[in-house]
Design brief:
alpha/beta, 2 domains, 14 helices, binds ligand JHZ, 32% helix
């Protein structure tokens, strides 16, 4: 099904079919200020499609980058200890394996608040962050991470190269899902990468998303859902080579780190992942067929669970004003009648309201003050970190609910 005849946003083929319709939802990171509660809130169709030609899973609705990532974009990477530790290890691994020193240059695309590059700065290794969101750039510059506040593109790469810059390492974490002009982004990376350099890219793995029915990680900001097969083809079109892959099953619900360079050659790990994607059928439309039905059953089960608890007079809060939380609340229809409020430790989110469903976002300390009977883990990807941090809430009788892969009380 592809009634509008959309072309693949990666390879341009017309062999694209929608396999999931999540209806019209608001933008997941467009938090609502209480003073704007009466103003109309834009909603956009959220259809997900598979391209039979290049295997790329993608959202079809086209929303300008400036609308998806406005100046008050609220996501700051530094609020998770797990992400900070993962990034620190990544940096130390690169310094060791690539022999980086004070004459190297590391460029990070979508460097956010400097959560990762600051580790290189601490080691005296020169960096350049590139990110379009001003508040995050300011935070990064404040911690000593030199950051250019721009969208990365092919044209920006040409400007940087004309200024004499070439990167020994390019890092692009959780950004290649977000780029409407994906081809321009990759050709820019190819130009900016020094001969002999390496690109590392991290993205949620589409296979983990489908297998765990993590439908809430689908939102307009996430245009592309990557696999080894999809990324290998994309890189080849721009003269780059996917050489190696690493899997981090606990990061953002399952993340792949791709190693890419100007040189051909694949590692045994990458060969195994590519073969596995073929044998599992990930590169064929059939793989995605039952997904919509599984999403509908999560919706029915979660509504039942929350409704039953409310009928028993229980109070329920949400944890994590995450983008995925917005998809979950809006698609399932979890309003303030079921979940009263959401807590989040990101101070830039506190005081705002969730998109569409309008639960107020409060500091995490509110859980101990209000002691709700249940906490719905909207940021279920950080379940262990959050539960360890909320030990006192649990000791006082509080319980946690996970929404995916199947709703349940922990
Ligand atoms: P979190 C974001 O998605 C947005 P989101 C983006 N599109 C992307 O690609 C992925 O990340 C990777 C809070 N929190 O990270 C912080 C606590 O309050 O799952 C966040 O607001 N206490 C760029 O928004 C939210 O939860 C904690 O202890 O779905 C988690 O959002 C921890 C660990 C987090 O991503």
């Amino acid at each position: 099904m592809n009634p509008a005849g959309d072309a693949c946003r990666s390879c341009g083929s017309r062999d694209v079919a929608v396999f999931l319709d999540l209806g019209k939802t608001p933008l997941s990171d467009r938090l609502v200020a209480p003073r704007d509660l009466e103003a109309p809130e834009p909603h956009f169709q959220l259809d997900v499609a598979f391209c039979a030609s290049c295997s790329m899973v993608q959202v079809l609705e086209k929303i300008p980058q400036e609308v998806l990532f406005p100046s008050d974009y609220p996501y700051f990477s530094s609020f998770s200890g797990f992400v900070l530790e993962h990034s620190r290890r990544h940096v130390h691994g690169l310094v060791e394996t690539r022999g980086l020193n004070e004459s190297s240059l590391v460029v990070e695309l979508a460097s956010n608040d400097g959560y990762l590059l600051r580790n290189f700065v601490d080691l005296g290794i020169p960096v350049l962050g590139i990110d379009p969101t001003p508040r995050q750039c300011e935070a990064a510059n404040e911690v000593g991470v030199r950051t250019l506040c721009r969208f990365f593109s092919d044209a920006l790469a040409e400007e940087l190269v004309a200024d004499g810059l070439r990167a020994d390492v390019i890092i692009a974490n959780n950004v290649m899902a977000h780029i409407p002009d994906l081809n321009g982004f990759v050709s820019g990376m190819a130009k900016l990468l020094a001969p002999g350099g390496i690109i590392t890219v991290e993205n949620p793995y589409v296979r983990d998303l489908i297998d765990q029915t993590a439908f809430d990680t689908i939102y307009h900001e996430h245009i592309f859902y990557h696999s080894c097969t999809g990324v290998a083809g994309l890189m080849r079109r721009h003269g780059l080579h996917l050489n190696h892959v690493e899997h981090f099953p606990d990061l953002h619900g399952g993340t792949l780190r791709y190693h890419i360079s100007h040189e051909p050659g694949t590692s045994p790990d990458l060969d195994a992942y590519l073969a596995e994607e073929i044998s599992s059928g990930l590169s064929s439309a059939a793989y995605y067929e039952g997904f919509g039905r599984r999403v509908e059953s999560i919706k029915a089960d979660l509504l039942q669970l929350l409704g039953d608890l409310r009928a028993q007079g229980k109070t329920i809060a949400g944890y994590g004003a995450a983008a995925k939380g917005s998809t979950l609340l809006n698609y399932i229809g979890v309003g303030r009648d079921l979940v009263d409020y959401v807590v989040d430790r990101n101070v830039h989110k506190q005081g705002m309201l969730m998109p569409g469903t309008h639960q107020p976002i409060l500091p995490t300390e509110s859980l101990l003050v209000r002691q709700p009977d249940y906490v719905l883990l909207l940021a279920w990807n950080f379940k262990d970190e959050i539960m360890a941090q909320q030990a006192e809430y649990a000791a006082a009788g509080g319980r946690f609910i996970v929404p995916v892969p199947a709703p349940g009380i922990l």
